[in-house]
Amino acid sequence: MSPRSARLARLSRSVTFSASHRLHSKSLSDEENLKVFGKCNNPNGHGHNYKVIVTVRGEIDPVSGMVMNLTELKEYMQEAIMEPLDHKNLDKDVPYFSEVVSTTENIAVFIWDSLQQLLPKGILYKVEVHETEQNVVVYKGEETIVK
Fold first, then answer.
1. CA angle, 120 as apex, 114 and 122 as ends, to 5°?
2. So where does Zn(2+) get bound (predicted)?
3. Is the full-model pTM beyond 0.70?
């Protein structure tokens, strides 16, 4: 049997959480907020059942046959996603969103940054946040687009 070259694979795990929020930017007037965010700017907020899919990428370990132990990934996702976000008012209960509009894009960035602090360096590949069945944000850690 000849030695095999390393094989890369992507491993994904999903969780769901429920949270409320209000789309509102402190940089805009009340009228501008209503125009930009519509009914999502409701002063009393609204809620979603979010689905998050986290994908890691790496070499398949020749001994374990895994990219990463799923139990560890589950624990990291519990700490980075479920504990800070599940059954929370994002704008009031999560300090990050006191200054950042709680759009699905920014939720994906929050989750990415939180997971980056926990996962082995370089393994996080993608965070998908499904706000609804029709609205999905994919974030891969990019910071800016060069213009």
1. 90
2. 21, 46, 48
3. yes
Feature table: binding site: 21, 46, 48
Of these residues, 59, 83, 87, 105, which one is catalytic? Answer: 87
- To the query of whether residue 24 is one of the catalytic residues in this protein, the response is no
Q: Which of 31, 131, 133, 142 is catalytic?
A: 131
Return the structure tokens found at 10: 């992507």
Interval 58-104: pLDDT, tens: 999 999 999 999 999 999 999 999 999 999 999 999 999 999 999 99
Residues 6+ apart with CB under 8 A from 147: none
Share the mean pLDDT of the chain: 94
28 forms bridges with which residues in the sheet?
none
Q: Give all domains of the chain, ordered by start, each with its CATH number.
A: 8-139 (3.30.479.10)
Choose, from 24, 31, 40, 83, the residue flagged as catalytic.
Answer: 40
- Note if 128 is an active site residue: no
Largest CA distance in the chain: 70
